[in-house]
Design a protein that fits this description.
Length: about 290
């Protein structure tokens, strides 16, 4: 894995970027790739995954580092799985600054202890924390209102990141409606940050918002284009569209083209034309 060529997001210690996108859009894979890069080239990285088991999270991280299929690493692909598993976990074992919290061991208290531990082992080095994902984290004051619960989680993580002076990468699931719109390329640039009921809480807490949008078809080698939208950016450069290249089998990601704000406006115009055209076709197809 090579270090990134150009920064998509630049943060200060104590700030967070929020990464949003549809189910299966590659949020966890992108986050793991960023954390692996950080651990290899910059400082300690902590991945908090309430959804994945520690074995599954480690398999994904190792597959990115070794550039092998993570389903092979989990032993789902027959004979090749053993070799891939050895390669992946050998690479992961070399990454001493990478650590994971998974399953039920993902409370705020667990996260604080993990930060304290890596700070003691690697003093003075910048720490990056990824939380995957907000909607299933445990709220400090749980209730029946989902929106209030998520707002409570976002605020608690904002305070933790600021107090501990780490860089946060917070993953958020999108609603079904906005997932469909993002996949269809109808939400572009700053518009793509509208993730649903929790958008206002995220907007207040985030220094930068990133949203995975339209996904291309894979080529013969498994690579596909993935649109990454940068919405809010506290230090400028918001409302920008990037195209990444992703290989689905390993989760490897490479930076492609930045189209800038003009590109974001052009993409929005194109999305409006597609939507208007689809509406016209449906209207034309109606009977008397």
């Amino acid at each position: 894995m090579a270090p990134p060529r150009e920064p998509v997001a630049e943060l200060q210690a104590g700030e967070s970027v929020y990464l949003m996108g549809p189910t299966g859009g590659g949020k966890s894979t992108l986050a793991l790739g960023i954390l692996c890069n950080h651990a290899e080239y910059s400082g300690p990285a902590i991945v908090v995954s309430r959804e994945l088991s520690s074995a599954a999270a480690a398999a994904r991280a190792g597959s990115i580092l070794a550039d092998v299929s993570w389903s092979d690493v989990l032993g789902k692909s027959g004979a090749s799985g053993g070799r891939s598993r050895e390669q992946a976990f050998a690479r992961l074992s070399e990454l001493s600054r990478f650590s994971m919290l998974a399953g039920e061991h993902t409370s705020l208290a667990d996260i604080k202890r993990a930060i304290s531990s890596v700070r003691g082992r690697f003093p003075g080095q910048p720490i990056m924390l990824a939380v995957d994902y907000l909607q299933i984290m445990e709220a400090e004051r749980g209730g029946h209102d989902i929106r209030q619960n998520i707002s409570s989680i976002v605020e608690a993580l904002r305070r933790l990141v600021a107090h501990e002076r780490v860089v946060g990468l917070m993953i958020s699931q999108m609603s079904r409606l906005t997932s469909r719109q993002a996949r269809a390329g109808e939400l572009v640039g700053k518009d793509a940050a509208d993730a649903g009921a929790e958008s206002s809480a995220i907007e207040r807490s985030a220094a930068i918002t990133l949203t995975i949008g339209e996904l291309g078809e894979p080529d013969a080698e498994g690579w596909r284009d993935v649109v990454l939208n940068r919405g809010k950016s506290r230090y400028g450069g918001g409302d920008t569209v990037f195209t990444l290249r992703q290989r689905g089998s390993s989760g490897d990601l490479r930076q492609g083209v930045e189209s800038g704000q003009e590109g974001a406006r052009g993409a929005r115009d194109a999305a409006r034309r597609r939507k208007a055209g689809a509406g016209a076709e449906r209207g034309h197809g109606r009977g008397p």
